[in-house]
Each structure stands twice: as structure tokens, then as C-alpha cells.
Amino acid sequence: MASGEAKVRLDLNNPVFQDNLLALQKPERHAALDTLRKIRQLSWNQLYRDPGLKWEKITSVKPPPGIEAIYSLRITRSRRATAYRDGDFIRFLTIATDHDATYGKK
């Protein structure tokens, strides 16, 4: 199977991401879980093209060593998550408290 056709696998183990997710109010937490459920059903090509997720490379933040690039995607109507691709895994990093925080702006 070509790498773009592989199903996206989730890595939700980052403690900051877990804290962000669990701190969401119940309706937003449910919306985030619905988004994660949706992502699991997509191939990487579908994830990149999905208009609702809006997968975007973050150019204003330098990625840590060993990570090619950090991306943001819509996880609820009002919040974006940061993540990066590692093989077939999407490794989640954070859920921003507001849209601009995702891009390192204040």
C-alpha cells in the first residue's frame, strides 16, 4: 500500500495533548473525539485534502530536532490541534486555547 493510501493511525500519548483534551468542556471534548474518530477512518491523502480539517504546515514555529514539520488541523469548530506525521502515525502535540495560539502568535 502506498504511504498516502495507508490509514492514519493516532498517537494521543503526549501529556500536553492529553491535558488539553481533558480540560475541554464536555461539548468541545466530544467534538474533538468525533474528529479523532473521523481521522482514524481516513487515508493520509484524504486527511491532507479534507476541507473540514484544514491540515496546514506551521511555518512560524521551528519543529524540534528529528521532526520535519509541525502541522495544525481543526479539531473542533473553534480549536486547532498541532501534530506531526511519523510514518503512518499522526502524533498529536497540543490543542490550542485559541486559533492564533496555534501559530505562535499572541
Explained architecture:
The chain has 106 residues and is of the alpha+beta class. The protein has one domain: YaeB-like fold (2-Layer Sandwich), CATH 3.30.2310.20. The protein is 28% helix and 22% strand. It contains three helices and five strands. The protein has a five-stranded mixed beta sheet. A hairpin with a 2-residue loop joins strand 4 (80-86) and strand 5 (89-95).
Number of helices: 3
The CATH H-level superfamily is RelE-like
Q: Please count the beta strands (DSSP E, at least 2 residues each).
A: 5
Arithmetic mean pLDDT: 90
State the CATH class. Alpha Beta
> What Rg is obtained from the alpha carbons, in whole angstroms?
13 Å
What number of structural domains do the residues give? 1
Low-confidence stretches: none
Structural class computed from helices and strand pairing? alpha+beta
Taking strands numbered 1, 2, ... along the chain, how are they ordered across the largest sheet?
A: 1-5-4-3-2
Main sheet makeup: 5 strands, mixed
Strand proportion = 15-25%
Q: What proportion of the residues is helical, as a percent range?
A: 25-40%
Distance between the termini: 42 Å
What is the element string, with H for helices and E for strands? EHHHEEEE
CATH architecture: 2-Layer Sandwich
What CATH calls the topology is YaeB-like fold
- Overall, the morphology is globular
